[in-house]
Amino acid sequence: MADMFSDESSARFFQIVQMFQRSTLLQMGYLPDQEGNLHYNLMEAKEGIEIMKMLQTKTKGNLSDHETQMLRAVISELQLQFTKAPQLHRKRQEENAQSEVIRETFSQPQDGPVEDLSSSPKGEEE
């Protein structure tokens, strides 16, 4: 990380940015927490993005061009991921629902879906 930043304070500033970035991605469901659980809280995610935008405003004129570009890139990427998060969340919910149906079918096969194979399809009389 020393290669990317001109001094220790720049490196520490971006450690803070990365903390907010990880927290925001976690709240959007892109990263699991320490126990492996995924969260979905767009209000918290939006707040993380707003805090980084506030940092961008408050540090304007005090960052190098490289630091400004990096901060802008992090914010832009989070905003893009924020717009995609609901679709990802719906997809995961559908996958979980399907997994639950399959799990239930195998744990209690007598209650699972049944296909009647005893009669021939209509129009195919012998």
What does this structure look like?
Helices cover 63% and strands 0% of the residues. It has 126 residues and is mainly α. The chain has one domain. Helix 1 (8-27) packs antiparallel against helix 2 (42-58), helix 1 (8-27) runs parallel beside helix 3 (65-107) and helix 2 runs antiparallel to helix 3 (65-107).
Question: What's the helical proportion of residues?
Answer: 55-70%
Q: Give the overall shape, derived from the CA principal axes.
A: elongated
Stretches where pLDDT is under 50 for at least 5 consecutive residues are: none
* Distance N to C terminus: 76 Å
SSE pattern:
HHH
Tell me the total number of β-strands. Answer: 0
| Mean pLDDT across every amino acid position | 86
Major sheet details: none
Query: What radius of gyration results from the CA coordinates?
Result: 24 Å
Provide a count of the helices.
3
Strand content: under 5%
Number of domains: 1
Structural class: mainly alpha
Please describe the topology of this protein.
Elements: H1 8-27, H2 42-58, H3 65-107
Tags for this model:
single chain; 3 helices; mainly alpha; 126 residues
The gist of it:
The protein is mostly helical.
